[in-house]
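queue> holo job accepted (AN7)
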Amino acid sequence: MSPSRPSARPSPPRPAFHDRRGGPAPRPSPLLKPWRGVIETYRPYLPVSSKTPVITLLEGNTPLIPSRVLSRRVGGRAEVYLKYEGMNPTGSFKDRGMTVAISKAVEAKSVAVLCASTGNTSASASAYAARAGVRSIVLIPSGAIALGKLSQALIHGARVVAVEANFDACLALAKSLAQLHPITLVNSINPHRIEGQKTCAFEICDALGRAPDINITPVGNAGNITAQWKGYREYYDRGRIRRLPLMAGFQAEGAAPLVKGKIITHPRTIATAIRIGHPASWQGALAASEESHGFIRAVSDRQILQAYRLLAAEEGVFVEPASAAAVAGLLALAESGYFTQRVRSRHRGGPLIVCILTGHGLKDPERAIKSIRVPRPLPPALSTIAKAIGLK
Ligand code: AN7
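queue> job finished
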């Protein structure tokens, strides 16, 4: 076959959106392979067929950022990476599951979707529902979700119901409503959510060329740790990785049912995303930690806020407090000597560690403002401004 014949060349991947006005579609640069979202990228691993309409905001493909500061804190020859899930289209990992859940809901001819949420699920559900042209209804615990997330649900046109109860009560109500009415529940008890969210593990393995030794994630309703473990196991079963990671989950101390082994009726933590006392994927989280020889532990709000500030101030990565729980957990493990006592003997070289940073810092601007000293306004005089900066 002559290489000069254009028809002999493999055609480039079709862009996700076609120019319907005619004319040639833009030609992607050969240097930049267009990303097509998690469904197209991992289609053989997902419950979709040629009949499934793909509702996507091109989620996934989030940065895996090496962290010098955390690698040094862990010590030895450890390598710590941050999987910055806050870079998804609506600012959290929920988009991975939502693209699958909403696509399947549309395939099933559903006209409305429903969720209970501590904020991020509602932001994601309402955005994907808007794109699909279906109605979204969200039940949120009144006064207990971060402002950024509430504004997302509202601007995407969700019917937002603020319930005078916590998340666990909202989820119970949502389940009952979905049983009584023809509405699709898109909380993570919907298995399509877990299917989509497992792609986070795929991306980590694809980027590293292997699984990490330790995968650290914050735990609330426990869908995400369940999904990540499923993803690693599927890559292992299909021979894409040769070893499985140890799964470490961290809950907030005042909302740690999995650590305490009982439902927490009044969960408390500043990390509102994970203020959950009765996680839906309880069994999934336990299986992930047990099968991987891992664990689920708790960190205090103080530890969470320290990690939150450290990530922002020393690594340039702004996350919401719930995400900082993963890093707080890593730091607590490092301080307790965990890596020198346990891990070094198991891994030659240093351990390869990935922390899942589940949500963007801009979700909860009020927390950032509370965590720092807000500048006092000054008159626009050069000498005053220079003095305030500390310049002579
Ligand atoms: C930033 O949005 O449960 O253990 O309703 O938003 O899978 O629940 C959010 C959870 C971690 C915990 N980090 O994940 C909701 C919701 C952030 C989150 C979690 C959440 P899961």
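queue> The longest strand covers residues 135-141.
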